[in-house]
Amino acid sequence: MKKVQVQFLHVGWGDAHLIRLPSGSITLIDGGDGTFSADQDHPLSWMVRQGISHLDWLILTHIHEDHLNGLLDIAITKTVSKAVLPYRPFKLMPEAKVRQDGSELARRVYGMLNAYLTLIHLLTEQGTEIIWRSDYGTEEQAVLWSEDGASLAQLYPWDGAGDPLPAYEILLQAIEEEDLGVLERFFELSNDDSSVYRLSFEREPDKSILFGGDLLEAGWERLAQRMDLQSWVWKVSHHGLPDAFNARVMEWINPIHCVIPISADRCGNMRPGWESLRSVSGASICLTGQAEDGIPRRLESETAIIDIGYGD
């Protein structure tokens, strides 16, 4: 029996994760920061190496450069059947105002938001079916696809459960008031709006894989109050920072393996905290950006193969 393949790519400080079903269907969750270099991978480079010209599903969890930018390269050069995106299109304030009066952070946020609108445009131009994630906003409507004994469901946010979207609220306020100070706040709040997805298997219900985006502790607490989050593998949120990767969240998810999307040279001061979590939980901790002796780079069950790091 062919197995589902999951690839956690090494894209530096960023997220890019691929799911490949036995049928050949491919889902990409986030695209990294768009950097092409010898030090990190890129989902487009992975597709080229694999001889793949088409994505069945493209998913963006939230708007930050390290999740969004690589998707633009995909949308320019590859075809995409369906895309799940966080927000409907919005009309930004005049760029001239931002350039003239905005701080460096305001200009950065404006650039991110403009890149998101560009992604929508590129996908629309090539005929991609764009689905707003609010369509998966209840337990009954959470499943994106179910195929080959595997299913992918959106666990967060659910509109039907009243999950807050503080970044989106701030964005709408900033646009309405043309307030650059308010616009700056989008950057720090965007992680709170992050989507979470779970890949589960009919034959092995205890071997689910949780894609945490960059959701922070408050969001995980809401999730833990409404469902069992225990997972075989957890793609750790927010690159292992303690606002998302801590004892409380670990207790709710109780993973066997933790995959942290980060380069080894970016995590030195976080390692003591990670080691403490590992010693208490017993979970393994794998970095997408480092191969260490004794640390698994491939995880396998009866139904899935997971590769961590640079993908062949």
Automatic annotation (TrEMBL):
Superkingdom of origin organism: Bacteria
Catalytic activity: 3',5'-cyclic CMP + H2O = CMP + H(+); 3',5'-cyclic UMP + H2O = UMP + H(+)
Any GO molecular function: hydrolase activity
InterPro entries (alphabetical): Competence_DNA_uptake (IPR052159), Metallo-B-lactamas (IPR001279), RibonucZ/Hydroxyglut_hydro (IPR036866)
Segments forming domain Metallo-beta-lactamase: 16-218
Keywords per UniProt: Hydrolase
Gene3D superfamilies referenced in this protein's UniProt entry, alphabetically: Ribonuclease Z/Hydroxyacylglutathione hydrolase-like (3.60.15.10)
Role summary: Counteracts the endogenous Pycsar antiviral defense system. Phosphodiesterase that enables metal-dependent hydrolysis of host cyclic nucleotide Pycsar defense signals such as cCMP and cUMP.
Protein name, as recorded: MBL fold metallo-hydrolase
The species this protein was found in: Cohnella endophytica
